């Protein structure tokens, strides 16, 4: 979303960069994207939240492209 791009850009600027990194997008995704998800009632009953789903997606995407959080 545009909000994700803009907030990642702002985070990069705060770090003194004029370009964004995957880490910037990963950091901002859980804040910008949960409102776009509609969870099934079953998921909500299991204690899942939209933010936890976005967190899981971000972790999986990082693994898919060979990045690690512990780098």
Describe this structure in words.
There is one protein chain. With 71 residues, the protein is mainly α. It has a single domain (2-64), classed as Magnesium chelatase subunit I, C-Terminal domain (Helicase, Ruva Protein, domain 3, Orthogonal Bundle). 62% of the residues lie in helices and 0% in strands. The protein contains four helices and no strands. Helix 1 (2-14) packs across helix 2 (22-32) and helix 2 (22-32) packs antiparallel against helix 4 (50-64). It starts with a helix and ends in a 7-residue tail after the last helix.
Mean of all residue-level pLDDT scores: 87
Shape type: elongated
Question: What number of domains?
Answer: 1
Portion in beta strands: under 5%
- The helix content, as a percent range, equals 55-70%
Profile the largest sheet. Answer: none
Which regions have little confidence, pLDDT < 50, spanning 5+ residues? none
H and E order: HHHH
CATH topology: Helicase, Ruva Protein, domain 3
In CATH terms, what is the architecture?
A: Orthogonal Bundle
The span between the termini is 27 Å
